[in-house]
Amino acid sequence: MTLLTVAGASGLVGSTITAEALARGYTVRGTLRDATDTAKRDSLMSLPGAKERLTLVSADTSDPASFDAACEGADAIFVACFPPIYKAADGTPATQLDRQRGWDEIVAPVVDGCRTVLQAAARQGVGTVLLCSSTSSTNPPEPVEVKTEDNAVSSGEQQMAAGKYTSAEKIYMEEMAQALCDEAGMRLCIFLPTMMLGPVLPHLQGNESLGLVRGMIEGRPQHERIPTGSISAAHVGDVAKLFLAGYEQPEARGRYFAVRDSWPVADFYAELGRLLPDAPQPLPPEGEIEAPTRFDFTRQRSLGVTMRDIPEVLAETVAFLRGKQG
User: Fold this and answer.
1) Which residue ranges does the record annotate as region Disordered (predicted)?
2) pTM for this one?
């Protein structure tokens, strides 16, 4: 039976990949920093098929051998254990760090940690890597009218110079991963999500990705005034399906957008107002609403995954969170 390793199995993306892989009949070995964490373990082991086909192990990038053990015998590894770092260890926001601290405390831990995981995978003969990155790596030096995975590539140096270390970490991670996988002969797919909504496991119900919807349900909007910008979003279950499709299609490789669409923030609040008519709304935006990001989804569609529309995703998220609230 095919074994898949999910690095970061307790996270938002990793847990949903784990659930999708189990639903498809795969055997899964999931890594957590601490596999004895009862809340996370119980959540994951409650998934259908988990008792028969899910093993949870402790692994940390500070101990490369722990990832050797996690990768042993696996056909592929799904790397979802590097969420964005927004603060230094002492709590200083990443945006307030100087360049040296930005590199040392925000960028390097992600790049070096991912390298450790991929080197272990290569040593163990893993053939395919599915890496979770972010659309924060899709801001090219010169703006483009319609983003494709090929033209929307950030410059790490430009991001560093602008003090955008959290964005820089993602493009540097992608570049390192591509070079390492090319050298090791591993097939690499990189997925680029942003805000992910939809039902989650119990230990993730406070996840910040659900904050916009949760804030409206609880009567405390996330914004005092609606921003003029836009947000890209997708159903986290559809994101997981993209990862599995990337694994199951041997010709798949390279970068894939993992969003359904980009909407003005004002449209998100308008749709949430329709779903939650009694919820207080933030103040209206000041100034002109910016045009949302435009994506070319040709590569994403080649994977054969039907992404749910944002109104459907919001409705499902509201129903899920209200059910848990009750």
Assistant:
1) 137-159
2) 0.96
